[in-house]
């Protein structure tokens, strides 16, 4: 197996997470780190032992040794950078959202097809072993007809009015925040598990903190740095802290989900339930090694992640024996493994979310925004 050289664009929270996941594959060398803040890039590269540092991603794209580029930049430059990666002849792994608008995302899908480059979006929650088990159970008919889907994705990292991040700025993050940031993960996951598509939405978006105190200096996501009263300036906020969304599926069933980034004590709680004609499935991904299976006429079950108990389709994503937990760091590792095996031309490489999935996610977010503005059901 040959070694593949990769580059990471973005030295913030998620960039180093990509580095760690890639290194666990064993056949990928993270050869370059790019960040518009050169000092931060040099500091992170030194800490992570990455040999080459760039301030301008265009210079990195000239390096013929780099085969795959991971775009972990802020949302507003995703389209520009993803386009440049593909046009340079390199394969692209993009953070979500794929682009700021559905039209941009569609153009990226078309460009990926034109260039023939491998493309992926980091919907990493797909690759928890028990998410794949739930998917395999639905595909095998064990859950039956999907009657409804419901759940939530709750966080508290923006709970206080002094909590601030670039995701609060529409020019950088986009018109939607909570739905685009975490709701997109929830929608992608339940559509993957059930094989159904969200085709219509009715949304209610709420901004809890109408103003926030923005630090006068830059703060990295989840850094938790303490500041004094004089270190802030008050700014208006017009993206949602909370959203409730009713939706219709392509089989005529309905569902609902809530996203909230001001839910005290909820650090990263992605919860879903699928109610089927034969049984129900639910999981809380803060407890990623448990899958609840509900029945009407016999006792409910809680499946604990154990490769020996999983369906064959899910077993490939569980790398440790039962009783050895796997969770957030393992999702991107599993996703990237599929991508890089595809890059190597392995005919048995397993699927991964592509730019088409990223386009679908952006289209759902746009429909949610339109529904909230117009107070009506909107087709995706």
Describe the protein's topology.
Elements: E1 4-9, H1 14-23, E2 28-34, H2 38-48, E3 52-54, H3 57-61, E4 66-71, H4 78-87, E5 91-94, H5 102-115, E6 119-121, H6 129-139, E7 146-154, H7 170-173, H8 178-194, E8 198-206, E9 211-215, E10 232-236, E11 242-249, E12 254-260, E13 269-276, E14 280-284, E15 290-294, E16 301-304, H9 312-315, H10 330-343, H11 355-374, E17 378-379
Parallel strand pairs: 1-2, 1-4, 2-3, 4-5, 5-6, 7-12
Antiparallel strand pairs: 7-13, 8-11, 8-17, 9-10, 11-12, 13-14, 14-15, 15-16
Helix pairs in contact: 1-10, 4-5, 5-11, 6-8, 8-11
Explain what the structure shows.
The structure is a single chain. This protein is 32% helix and 25% strand. It has 2 domains: 4-124, Rossmann fold (3-Layer(aba) Sandwich); 127-355 and 359-374, Dihydrodipicolinate Reductase, domain 2, CATH 3.30.360.10. It contains 11 helices and 17 strands. The model has no long low-confidence stretch (mean pLDDT 96). The radius of gyration is 21 Å and the shape is globular.
Order of helices and strands: EHEHEHEHEHEHEHHEEEEEEEEEHHHE
The largest β sheet comes out as:
9 strands, mixed
Q: How much is the average pLDDT?
A: 96
CATH superfamily of the largest domain: Dihydrodipicolinate Reductase, domain 2
Number of helices: 11
Radius of gyration: 21 Å
Percent of residues in helices comes to: 25-40%
| Total separate domains | 2
Supply the CATH class of the largest domain: Alpha Beta
Helix/strand class? alpha/beta
Query: Would you report the number of β strands?
Result: 17
- Tell me what the CATH architecture of the largest domain is: 2-Layer Sandwich
Tell me the strand percentage band: 25-35%
Estimate the global geometry from the Cα principal axes: globular
Low-pLDDT regions:
none
Query: What is the third-level CATH name, the topology of the largest domain?
Result: Dihydrodipicolinate Reductase, domain 2
N-C termini distance = 43 Å
Strand arrangement across the biggest beta sheet = 16-15-14-13-7-12-11-8-17
